[in-house]
Design the sequence.
């Protein structure tokens, strides 16, 4: 019973730190967010941050993982409303690209994340997205909708296109203007995988 209570306390501490960091990183950016301020806001010490995440960079990784998981869930929900698997794949990619308009996603995941954590395709959270896209492409190949190509290669290129479109939007002076162009180009690129033109 004591072990369960301890694990609950650890999870509660981690959740408080992630929530405080998420707010601070969104409002001030990673570089300007003070560890003292965010631990004070969470009602915890710097020691709790170091114990749970190692350092500020480890805390950013946890925040990015959380937001990335939420983004994936939102994109899958959009895909689930599409009429078929092909349209679902396109809708999921477009939804991911559109999330670049969200100020929190833009600052934490698309601007600060790559600057601090490195290349996004190397992030553990991206592996889950890649597996999901690969499975979708495999199913579309089996159904005869998509050309017989290597499913992982196609998934990597689709995910890379969506990610780079989102990065472009996040760095743009005209995010909304870029969004329309990016989604249209993403759909055109993806259409090249079709066995028969749409």
Sequence:
């Amino acid at each position: 019973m004591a072990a369960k209570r301890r694990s609950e306390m650890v999870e509660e501490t981690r959740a408080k730190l992630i929530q405080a960091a998420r707010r601070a990183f969104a409002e001030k950016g990673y570089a300007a967010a003070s560890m003292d301020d965010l631990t004070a806001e969470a009602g915890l010490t710097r020691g709790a941050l170091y114990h749970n995440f190692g350092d500020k960079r480890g805390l950013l990784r946890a925040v990015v993982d959380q937001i990335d998981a939420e983004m994936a869930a939102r994109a899958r929900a959009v895909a689930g409303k599409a009429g078929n698997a092909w349209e679902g794949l396109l809708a999921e990619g477009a939804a991911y690209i559109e999330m670049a308009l969200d100020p929190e996603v833009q600052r934490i995941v698309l601007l600060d994340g790559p600057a601090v954590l490195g290349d996004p395709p190397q992030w553990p959270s991206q592996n889950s997205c890649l597996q999901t896209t690969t499975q979708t492409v495999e199913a579309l190949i089996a159904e005869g909708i998509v050309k017989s190509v290597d499913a992982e290669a196609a998934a990597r290129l689709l995910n890379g296109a969506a990610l780079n479109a989102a990065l472009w939007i996040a760095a743009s002076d005209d995010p909304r203007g870029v969004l329309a162009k990016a989604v249209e180009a993403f759909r055109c690129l993806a259409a090249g995988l079709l066995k028969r033109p749409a």
About this structure: Residues 2-28 form the longest helix (27 residues). The CA atoms of residues 76 and 92 lie 6 Å apart. The chain is about 75% helix and 0% strand.
